[in-house]
Amino acid sequence: MRATGVLSGRRGRVAAGLLSTCLVLTACSPQRPHRPAGAKRSAAAAATAPTPVGSAASAAASVAASAAAAPDVSRYYRQRLDWRPCREAASFRCTSVTVPLDYTRPERGDIRLAVVRHPATGPRAARLGSLLLNPGGPGVSAVDDVLSFADGFSPALRAAYDLVGVDPRGVGRSDPVDCGTGTSPAALEAEEDAVGPGSGFALIAGACARTAGRLLPHVGTPDAARDMDVVRALLGDDRLGFLGYSYGSYLGATYAELFPSRVGRMVLDGAVDPGMDAFRATLGMARGYQVAWEAFAADCVPRPGCPVGGSLRDAGRVLDDLVAELDEASREGDGRGVPATGDDLLTAVTSALATPAWGGLRSLLREVQAGDAATRRLLLGTDDAGGPGEQSLAAINCLSSALGPRSTDAQTRAAVPEFRRAAPQFGAYYAAFLPMCAHWPARPTQVPHRISARGAPPILVVGTTRDPATPYDQARALARQLSSGRLLTWDGDGHTAYQQGSRCVDTAVDDYFLHGRLPADGTVCR
């Protein structure tokens, strides 16, 4: 769903915007400051050590094992990677990898995946292999993420690992889903007004069916996980080192389910519960943002000049009034284009709660209350609704009935009261996304199910107690499902925990990646 972006963008009315850069239950790519992780180490159970890179025999054995498991795609495991300095930064290396469009029928054609690598800075003998990173979304470019944030990892981690980003199929630079809609926000809003809720979703689904229909059935999470195994082998690693945020945790868990014996040191942060259906996940996200809003309000109320009043009840009323005021102004129009709506404000609020950016949210609310024209225009952002990133996000989520809700309009209307009870300020906003995949042209290929990944080495799951986008209950559920799961808890705010300011979390994650030592069972970072 669109709500929770840490990425900025044009946000129209609920159905008109189709989706946000962060979708229901798969949430968003976290903002990671350029902050080195702490150096303190914690002792815990040992995990399986990754195999150092640089061994041709090791790489050949890995390729052979992978080929034996899927002999019809063995040629993809025998590629030679042509690493070249990246155009954006010569210290990084870029290449592309060829994978089959359809793993069951590789003769149907190929997809090219964009790959970037930040080479390990330490001595070759001390290197631990590759660490693949996925920032979530889905639809967020892992290549761009590595180019932007590689320097934010601790010196010890950068010395030990090649940091690798792979744009998943259908995303960014890897044959992105492009429905070519070119549809203006105003046109989408007009259709919604004329036809009814969910029509914006139907409009873009139809455009995607016409222009990207061949690709749409093949951008699901299992295919992306199989692609990661090809990349793992070509990098020369016997086991996959992986760090996945938000949707990236779902991708990582899916890989562990398909290839448990090839899992190396894996960390899943801001975890998604693969056993939860999309309706319950959407409801949980609405509730999660209500909790986050109330935490923000509780912090704001004692402050001089707090823009949400003197109590939690006042805070809810203030936000409701601002949403209603913007909606009324948008209906009246001002002759200067599409004005900001209440949903535009809620998108900005959810973005600030996910980051979290409470100081910025206080300032934003004050300016909106004061009628600041520039701030209200800023709510609109600059991106067109239904752009390529949002189309990729929809295409991936709608292939999983755990990620993409498919409620009918009647079911959506019937669900609104339950959503409002769970989240007075955010319930209706999220309920409007229940028909998101109802018109999607490609049917789901994944159903909600528990993932145990039996046989995998320890997998570290990280959850934040007041994470609004992927509520903490999901991290607990995933850690329980995984046969080798270990939960690390951050008693904090915002979406995801690693590199968000907790030295305790950063130390524990780095210690696991570097030494295979898990935090003690039940560890809570405060």
Termini separation comes to 30 Å
SSE arrangement, N to C: HEEEEHHEHHHEHEHHHHHHHHEHEHE
Shape: globular
Give the overall pLDDT as a whole number.
Answer: 85
The percentage of residues in β strands lies in 5-15%
Give the biggest beta sheet: 10 strands, mixed
Please give the count of helices: 17
**Low-confidence runs of at least 5 consecutive residues:** 1-28, 33-69
The tally of beta strands, per DSSP, is 10
Largest beta sheet: strand ordering:
1-2-3-5-4-6-7-8-9-10
Bin the helical content.
Answer: 25-40%
Whole-angstrom Rg: 22 Å
Oligomeric nature of the chains? single chain
- Summing up helix and strand content along with how strands pair, one would put the structural category as alpha/beta
